[in-house]
Fold each of these.
Amino acid sequence: MITWNKKVPQALVSRLYEQTASGIFDDELLDEVGCALYARCKSVVSATCGFEKKVLICPNPMCEAEIKLVGGYFSCRCGFNASWDEFKKSYKGRQLHAANALPIFEKFIADFPKAKTYGDKITCVDVLIHSFHIKMSYYRTLDDYDVDNEGVELNRPAGAN
């Protein structure tokens, strides 16, 4: 079974921004938001690459190996296995496809772990969130498990992920 990291609650992000704007630099809250965004971004990148490139990042946090789809299955040396159909069903309705916003998610994954100070970390979070508002719309590709919107090209902000 594939489990994906959940969306980060907007209220949590709002609280971080409100406190920071008020001059309250809560390292614990920033780490909570940053780590939750990091985990969600990793899920988005993995689901997108699994669908588009047929390469899945192993969902086992102790492994995280790249797994190629072979014979209709993702099989990892750590013991994780999922069929193509199981994989597709696992992300249905979870807003995990990055579409043309993939570089934004990848940049956050690369930059956030390197950030050490409050300023560096809040900048990473800020760049991620504000990047979605600048020009990145999400063009959803339709697949067999998204029949509710068959034949419709949807466009929405990538920040919904």
Amino acid sequence: MTSDPHIPVAISARHVHLTRKSIDRLFGEGHELHVHAMLSQPGQFAAEETVTLVGPNGLLPHVRIVGPVRSADQVEISRSDEYTLGLDAPVRLSGELDQTPGILIQGPLGQMRLDHGVVLARRHIHMSPAEAEALQVFDHEIVSVAIQNGDRDVVYGDVVVRVASDYRLELHLDTDEGNAAGLHSGDQALLIAPTPGRARLQRRP
């Protein structure tokens, strides 16, 4: 395993994760998601199916579902999307949904209102245990990455390392963060050596 500190970047557009019950409600009972494109993280895919997000001030149509089916409904948007919808969502890691706002989701055969579940995804790096060992970082460590992209160089701090056996090395940024640095999926970021103290994220209950 290489210790090359360069990490491929994935720009994550707005999307939703849905439970079996929610898919049934929006698309009809027993509906199965159809693969539009496989994603770089093993087993994950962008579905053909899309929904419309309806907030207090506006709506976002054609928001793609990311599969497979999840155990909890989750809506991931950017700060710009917040302004369109009229929401104030917190920055969270996936699955940390307590005290988050809800939203109305419309599908072709029904609609549903979530009482919580809308987040701004916290920037993070996926990696396997072997990749973490090679890069000398650990799960939930907070690191920084540098984007060296001509006239839009950026350093992003507060990046959370996420380690699991089924993860593949990749930095995930949302569209606002990617646009700020002129990035595209597949570009490279440079992992900055962790500072003394090795800060670890305190996970929410």
Amino acid sequence: MKDYFALLDEPRRPWLDAKALKAKFSALSSDAHPDRVHSASEAEKQEANERYAQLNAAYNCLREPKDRLQHLLELELGGKPVGIESVPDDTMELFMQVGQLCRRVDGFLNERSKVTAPLLKVQMFQRGTDWTDKLQALLQSLHVRRAELEKTLQSMNAAWESAPRPGDSHRSAGLPLGQLEQAYRALSYLSRWTGQLNERVVLLSL
């Protein structure tokens, strides 16, 4: 398995500074950009292209917290995390709120699609604005929860910084992998719910 942390010369850890990561990626990818080897041999060009593609894949993975945690868990556990189907207890209330609001908005959208009278369309527009406000308010709650998880990840960095080096048989015992998996599951659901709510915001605007 390709270690994207090593590829970007980053130590393995749950939280990364987004600006520092982008700066490091920019420096590495600039050196590896195919345009810098336009006069090289075909083998050298192919190598540069592969290196550039790998750096892009690594950056795209590590800059997104959910993808970064999945990759980190795969590196530490030797396989993909399991049990992500169950909603974490501390996000269950948000799960219920998102499901209920999405169903109600879907009902409104279905009702709106059948309206043809101009006066009723005006009324539907105002109701649609109200639903959009409700969606935006819930999206803000998701953003707050995501920010809380980011702080948790940042506090977990110390465990990785003090753990034995990768490959050491004692490494897993010193890492809070259960807590990391919980954070990964929560971020996975938050990303999914954010997408569902944003999709309905777009449909209401049409």
